[in-house]
Each structure stands twice: as structure tokens, then as C-alpha cells.
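LOG
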Amino acid sequence: MKHKGAISVIVLITMSFIAMLSSVLATVTYNEKLMSSAYYNKECAYYIAEAGIERALTIIDREINKRLEEISYIEEDEDFINLTISMEIRNFFSPLKSNCFDELIKEYEKASGKDSAIFPQIIEKPSYYDVKAELDDIYKRTFILTSTGYYSYSMITITARYLIQETADAYKLICLDWN
């Protein structure tokens, strides 16, 4: 009868150990869920930023080819063509005309320039992109697009440098850098 309370102590120690182990496992599981959610949000923000660049490229490609087709009958001078390309890119993304890109999107796509009306219907979280363009080198016909994608509380920025290359039938946009 000396060891009558020993089993109670062993059961109590075992239960305490199981409770501590359960607490640690719950904390690890919760942290894994948070990290997985953060990774998913960053991936979504990346793809939204990429969508911004793709939309900007579509518009730039269409508008530059349309404009250069108009002037190709008039002017063959390289400097004039470079200046026209420069002015077209500035017109779409000028900080002084911040609504110009939005208006162009509304005209072509019937949406706002940030897709704020489209993405939430699909993925149910606040998400949009913001695209900016700047000329890199007018004589080499290069420009830089910067697109920031927002998804939930995550934000990713992509910067891409493009070359406008003349071909026999049109001008093509060629990606030089992407990061």
C-alpha cells in the first residue's frame, strides 16, 4: 500500500506531457497555416502584377502599331519614329494624365484600369494592379513597365524592360529583362 498514489502521479505527469505536446502541435499547425496563406497571397499578388504588365503590353502594342502605321506613309525618319514611340508611351502612362490609362482601358475593356471590379468577383479578396511605364532609351526604343499586384494584404512588384523592334510588317515588343 506504499505506492497507492504513485499511479495518480504518473497519470498526471503523462496527461501534462500530452497537453504540452498538443499545445506545441497546435501552435506549429497554426504557424504553418499562416505561412501557407502568406505564400498563397504572395503568389496571387505576383500573378495579378503579371496580368497588369500583360494588359499594358497589349495596349501599347496595339496603339504603337496603329500610330506608326499612320505615320509610316508620311515619315521614314528614325528620329521621328523614335519620338512618336516616346510620345505614345508618355501619353498612356504620364503622371500628369493619370486617368489616361484608365480611360483607355474603359474604352477597350469596359473596366477600370486596376481591375478592381473584375478580380474580387473571381477570387473574393480585394485585389488589383497598378501599372507605370517610363522610357529607358529613346534611341534604342526601350521602355520599362512596373506593375504592382495587390492581393489581400500582400503586394508584389514586377519590373520588365522591353524593346520595340521593327519587323517587315509591324513593330514587336521583346522582353529584355524581367524581375
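LOG (cont.) second protein
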Amino acid sequence: MFREAQSTDFDAIMALYRQLHPHDPPITDGSDRVTFDQILATEWLHLYVLEQDETVIATTYLNLIPNITRSASPYAVIENVVVDETRRGRGHGKMIIAHTLQQAWDAGCYKAMLMTGSRRESTHAFYRACGFSADDKTGYTARPPRESTDADATRTRDEVAPVGPA
């Protein structure tokens, strides 16, 4: 069942995020819970889950962004798409993306965007099969400068590869 995340989904969603970013250091000051609650309380931000047998097995994060162009139509950014690693390859990813996109269209969005840091062809084929095109726009990211840490040294090339054409 596809649904909006609830406060009680916090632990399950965080477990999925640990699968997405296994090298992220654990947050121990409670700021993750504060941010989670802010997302749930914000009209234009939506965390969704896919639930099977009363277990959260996938999640997406839909950001609806007000916009002055395109007849003042909002656009969507989809982030943090995760299907539990033990349940991948069964259509759950396509299902949660399809439902998330429908939420964007129902909100009047004229486009939905997502970016992936993955260089795996299977990941790109998955997003193409979900209706996304890598040919419409070029995505760039910028990050604030910071000092290198030991955690950076353990990241794989797939995790730090730049987005866009090689």
C-alpha cells in the first residue's frame, strides 16, 4: 500500500536511508527526528512509503516547489528513492515511483526531476523505465567546501561519481 509517511514510520525510513547511504555517520543529537517532523508538517514536502504486510519496504521524498514560470505551475523534485535491499527486483521501485509521480501530477506540477549519483546502467535503465529522460536537461550539483574525512576515503567511486556525461 502506498501512503504518506506518518510519525511512527521514522525508524523504518531511517533504516532504509542507512541502506541508501551506509557510510553516513549516525546522528545522535536527535536532529534527524526534528527534521523528519518538519518534513511531515510542511505542506510542500511529502515523504511516501510503500508498505507490505504492515512493513515499510520502500520510500520516496517528493518536494513540490512553487514556481512563477510555466503558468505559475509548480515542479517536483524526487529524492531518496529506496527499496529495501531484500525486496528489490520485484516491481516495488516502479510502483512507488509511479505513485509518487501521480502525486506530483495531481499537485499540478509541469515536470518532475530526480538525480542519481549511480553510474550503474541498471539504475539508469530503471529510471528510464519509470518515465524519466536523461536527455531533457543537464544536472549539476555543488557542495560546500569541507575538509576530507576518513569516511570520504571509504566511499566507492559509484557514490562520488559526478552526475552527467563523462
